[in-house]
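Hi V.,

You were right to ask for the full record rather than a summary. Here it is.
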Amino acid sequence: MSTVYEYITKAQTNNRHLFFLLIDPGDAETNAVSDLVAAATENGVDGFLVGGSLVTREKVAESVQLVKKSTDRPVVLFPGAAQHVVPEADAILFLSLLSGRNPDYLIGQHIQAAPVIRDYDLEAIPTAYLLVESGGMTSVEFISATRPLPRNNMDIAVAHALAARYLGMKLVYLEAGSGARMPVPDEMIEAVAQQCHLPLIVGGGLTGVREAAAKARAGATVVVAGNHFEQKRALKELRDFADSIHAVGH
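Predicted structure:
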C-alpha cells in the first residue's frame, strides 16, 4: 500500500495537481462534516486535511473518525499543537513553522509529539510551514506569535524553502491563513516551485475556481481550500474546483 507522501510525489512527478479540503474541527458540526466530506468525495476531492488552532484533542479525533467514515481518500492531520495527534488518521504533516522564529513551533511541540506519533505508528511527513502575509493578522500568526513572510519578496520565500529542502524536509506548505484577505501570490508559488523542487501545498483565502486553478498552474502540487466550503451555497462549486485544478497540466 502506498503512503500519503508517495501519493503526493506521484502527482508531482506526473504533473498532476491535487485538491485537498481542510476540515476545521472547531468550526464543523457532526452532520455537516459527514455531508461535506461525502459531497467532496463524490465531486473529485483528492484528500482531506483535519486540524485547527483552537480545538481539543477529542474534537480532532471525532472529526477524523467522521471523515474516515465518509471517504476512501487520504485523511491527513494538520496539527496546531502536539495535543492534536490522534491515531485514526492516515498521516500527519509534521509541521515546522520556518517562517517564524518561535522555538516552540520550530521544535518544541515536535518533541512532545514525536513519541506519540511513534506509538501510533502514524506516517509523519516533515513539512516546512511558511506563513505568507495576507493583508491582516491570521489565527496562526496570532497564536504562534510570529511574523509572516512578506508577500512581495520572492527571494525571502525561496531562501526559506531552500533551507527546508537542505534540512531534509519533504514538503513545503505556503499558507496565507484561514480566511485570509489575499491568497499566496502566484509569483511566489512559481519562484519556490522552480528553485526548491519539493512538492508544494498552497492554501488560505481561496474562494474562486479560477484562483484555485491559478495556484496549480503556478506550481502547487496540492491546492487546499476550507472555509469557503463551510457555506452550503458553495458546495455546488466543489466539482468546479476539483475539475479546474485537475485540468492543469493536461
